[in-house]
Specification:
Length: 122
């Protein structure tokens, strides 16, 4: 079992930055790819970014390429989503996810966090 806890959400003005963190715990954690999804009010949850267990491969949704980066610490227990040049349309609840590979975590991850709210004002 894997437990995921997000933090770092909040209110920011358009053009600003936020960094989200996801602390993970559980067995065989270092073998998991991790990712981020988001869900805006009235919309379906959508993929944002993912990173391989080694940290050597990353994958992003087109809507955030060039603005967001994803990384994980050397212990592989925390993943970060650095969000720059934020836009009002980035407003959503952001969820951390984990699964066996970048392909799986980007599409149908098994493990989810509880989410953290990000609000970007215009």
């Amino acid at each position: 079992q894997v437990q995921l806890v997000e933090s770092g959400g909040g209110l920011v003005q358009a053009g600003g930055s936020l960094r989200l963190s996801c602390a993970a715990s559980g067995r065989t954690l270092s073998s998991y790819a991790m990712g981020w999804f988001r869900q805006a009010p009235g919309k379906e949850r959508e993929f944002v970014a993912a990173i391989s267990w080694s940290g050597g491969y990353t994958h992003f949704a087109d809507s955030v390429k060039g603005r967001f980066t994803i990384s994980r610490d050397s212990a592989k227990t925390t993943v970060y989503l650095q969000m720059n040049s934020l836009k009002p349309e980035d407003t959503a609840v952001y969820y951390c996810a984990a699964d066996s590979s970048v392909v799986v975590v980007s599409t149908r991850p098994k493990y989810w966090g509880q989410g953290t709210q990000v609000t970007v004002s215009s």
